[in-house]
Design goal:
By secondary structure, the chain is α+β, with helices and mostly antiparallel strands. The chain contains 17 helices and 12 strands.
């Protein structure tokens, strides 16, 4: 055997051993979860259930979607159909508790989640080791009175704001999850009752978007007390974290499901996280699209983002305003209708205004491809520029001359002016999505 083959085999073996060593802690944690009756299953994302009509329409027209083409948001979806009475009538619950968390009358298991978003502005922690599922024994009713009853609870549904996809390639933006199980061996009924109460407070007051006011104080106080209670208890056993990354590009693993089949039957539901995708904030089935309605819409004139803990909500989402209001706030000299083709001085600004409409809609406001096209289309229609731009391919010499004159005043060619203000591909793409989603032509 040649020395080259031996070297390649040695390198292959070394690579395999390094890979096995790297994933071993994660595999151990995954096995520990499963030994406690908890399964973490990535997969199951599909456009029919987890994307809207605008996303599907744009993908059909364009093919592979890329930078700026869509918005995404993380959805927490508790799907367990389970009640207090179900819990006490489920023999697997009792067997589970006896086997894994002790034979005493008071025991507890929580599944905690830490969620971090990695986006254009860097990493943001959205959830810090927060309990999302709790199951145990130690109360007599769902109100939390002490006793020997069983209980089960899950976090409420929650959704992040829409964030525009800005990655230059897959994997640059994502959600990172770490799951941890905390379970008791033998604790007091008082401890179980208090944890159950704190879980309800945390679930009820947590929000991805509301990080100001009394709501946050109540949530923070409860979360801190719960963490202190767990830290002070010497009878709490913890599993290792199970990390996973959820891609945003609408692939199968853009969904994550937690189930407990050996504890609660699969027919009772599951707990899920998934990415919801949309290409527009304003287009919807059977909606009417006119320049006036687009320019009056108050979701297209400010940039949405994650409020960060400790910051004022207004720092992230200023007062809602229309796209027209936003553009005038940027340039006080801009005509109310964006373009004024009646005076020589205003006509010279057409190319520059079109450039600003592109920059402000795409870069400053972080609108998606379709939403940016909507506001630009509405602006050129409102300013009576749309018809002039049609002169490029018109057989009418009068219309061709009108476009050429305007282009000359802006010191560019007719084609350059059209490409900047309303490229034929802009029309094709927007008209196609509007027709597919609303059933109406773009006029």
């Amino acid at each position: 055997m040649s020395s080259g083959i031996l070297v390649r085999r040695s390198l292959a073996c070394a690579s395999f051993l390094l890979f096995a060593f790297a994933v071993q802690p994660e595999l151990r944690a995954q096995a520990e979860f499963e030994s406690l009756g908890v399964q973490l299953n990535p997969g199951g994302w599909n456009a029919t259930d987890h994307a809207d009509d605008t996303y599907i329409a744009l993908k059909t027209i364009q093919g592979q979607l890329a930078t700026y083409d869509f918005y995404y948001q993380l959805v927490i979806y508790p799907h367990y159909k389970f009640t207090f009475s179900d819990c006490n009538q489920t023999p697997t619950i009792d067997a589970f508790l006896r086997r894994f968390v002790g034979i005493t009358s008071s025991n507890l298991l929580t599944i905690n989640a830490t969620i971090r978003h990695r986006g254009e502005q860097g990493p943001t922690e959205l959830m810090a080791d927060q309990p999302i599922i709790i199951v145990g024994r130690g109360i007599t009713n769902n109100a939390g009175d002490e006793g020997n009853g069983c209980f089960f609870d899950q976090s409420l549904s929650n959704t992040t704001p829409l964030i525009r996809y800005s990655a230059k390639k897959p994997g640059e933006e994502d959600f990172e999850f770490k799951f941890r199980i905390a379970h008791t061996t033998n604790v007091t009924a008082n401890f179980v009752t208090r944890v159950k109460s704190l879980f309800s407070i945390i679930s009820g007051y947590f929000s991805f978007t509301d990080l100001t006011g009394e709501r946050v104080k109540i949530f923070t106080d409860a979360a801190n007390e719960l963490q202190t209670a767990f830290n002070d208890s010497s009878k709490i056993a913890n599993t290792n974290n199970v990390p996973t990354v959820m891609p945003l590009e609408g692939v199968s693993t853009s969904r994550y499901k937690i189930s407990m089949p050996t504890i609660i039957s699969t027919g009772a539901g599951y707990f899920a996280f998934y990415v919801k995708l949309t290409a527009s904030q304003v287009l919807a089935k059977n909606s009417t699209v006119t320049p006036g309605l687009i320019l009056a819409n108050q979701t297209l004139g400010f940039k949405t983002c994650y409020p960060k803990p400790g910051a004022k909500l207004a720092d992230c989402a200023p007062d809602r305003k229309t796209f027209r209001d936003f553009m005038i706030s940027v340039d006080a000299t801009m005509p109310v209708r964006f373009f004024d083709l009646r005076t020589a001085e205003s006509r010279k600004k057409v190319y520059g205004t079109c450039d600003q409409l592109r920059i402000r809609s795409t870069e400053t406001l972080a609108l998606s491809t379709i939403d940016a096209l909507l506001v630009r289309w509405a602006a050129i229609k409102e300013g009576k520029l749309y018809d002039v731009l049609q002169g490029l391919n018109s057989a009418d010499p009068t219309r061709k001359k009108a476009l050429k004159d305007l282009a000359t005043e802006n010191q560019v060619s007719s084609k350059a002016l059209v490409d900047m203000c309303w490229h034929p591909d802009d029309q094709r793409k927007l008209a196609g999505v509007v027709k597919a989603v609303t059933g109406r032509d773009l006029n």
